[in-house]
Design goal:
about 20% strand, five-stranded mixed β-sheet, Trna Endonuclease, Chain: A, domain 1, about 300 residues, 8 helices, alpha/beta, disordered C terminus
Amino acid sequence: MIDPLSLLIALLVQYWPLWLAFMLLNLLGALAKSPGFKGWIGEVRLDRTLRKLPAQRYHLIGNLTLPTADGSTQLDHVLVSPHGVFVIETKNFGGWIFGKAHEKMWTQKFPRRSSSFQNPLRQNYKHVRTLAELTGVDEAALFSLVVFVGTAEFKTAMPPNVVKLSGCRAAIEAHTAQLLDEAEVARVLARIQSTRLAPGWRTHAMHVRHVKQTVEARQAPRAVAPPSPHAPVDAPAPEVATVSAPAAAEAFPRCGGKLDVLTYRSGPKLGASFQGCLRFPACSYRLDLPAAAREAAIS
């Protein structure tokens, strides 16, 4: 009588190269489908495209991790040039994409499943703000760009500042005005390199842990303080008055977004007020206000 265990061991010993190849193929298949691997492939493809730009004018920094007040933030690509600083977020997606500039979440659809993901324009906004505070570059010279490098197809109108890989270079080269001189470009590059966290797996692991903790903190239920026994049960909620500046309009005709009076938080115009669209970064409208309008806005 043949022992099944002995037969199995004999087959494993005799055909071990085939078994090993089979296991490696399965492992590689699972790796290729993982979000991390697809994201890395997307960044490599975009990196190759960006390096076709003239190196003497466009300075590329990839896989950039910067410290923030609450931990760190990771930028896929930053392109520093006389025509501005481009903060680029990469998405390697397939399927159908549904999303608008002002929506918090976008949707990815396949024939049998769908999922939601954070609006990458909102995600990249933190990157832009971090870079603005770090370098002191005026926001008018900072540009947010989201690049989809996969086979994804937009089923809604593609929002401004969102392009496919094939349109990435054209979107960058469309900015032809000189916004930074050579000295300012060199200063920005030096500031980024001196502040960035050391590239490597350790920095990446620390950032991933920070993101995980942030997500868990947002999802955790918040404790609600019990009402004070001395407070009246039907006490009315306090009224909050909102003051709008005379220069603000109900809606901006160009994009339909609301306008409000905002304040520069960095750069040479620190503390000055301007009228801006609340749909930023999808809409980059900005109008500096004179001193009289600023005083009227806060009075």
